[in-house]
Request: fold
Amino acid sequence: MGYRIEASDPTEERAQVALNAFLAEMAERVDTRFLDSDVVAQASKPEFFVLALDDANRAVGCAALRQVATGTGEIGQMWVNPVLRGRGIGRRMLSALEGAAAVAELNTVRLETHENLTESILLFETNGYQRGGDSENEVATHIYEKQLD
Reply:
């Protein structure tokens, strides 16, 4: 089965399904406070949003990029269906977001994650992201940052 990464409108139905799956997994693995946050609304205002789609056009992953300061972008709402992890889908979404950041003339990309999300941490660290201290976000534990060429 093949997977492709496409730019998408985060309010589109497939995107909403993926974002809600992200939210449910974060509530289960990280903190139930995710259920109180409006992740779907937050993701509806990115500069760039991608979906990973399977051959049947079902969303199997999603991720968003938004500019948070001059020259700095932040990746959020990154999720891959747990049964499909390890197939390069997250790496391809990350690459698409970094490409969009470069086009938008963002020279730094950052993200926040939680220590329980070990597969995410591995993805970021093996793609050149450096740990940059602790997060001020009450449900995140790690900040990562990458300088783009």
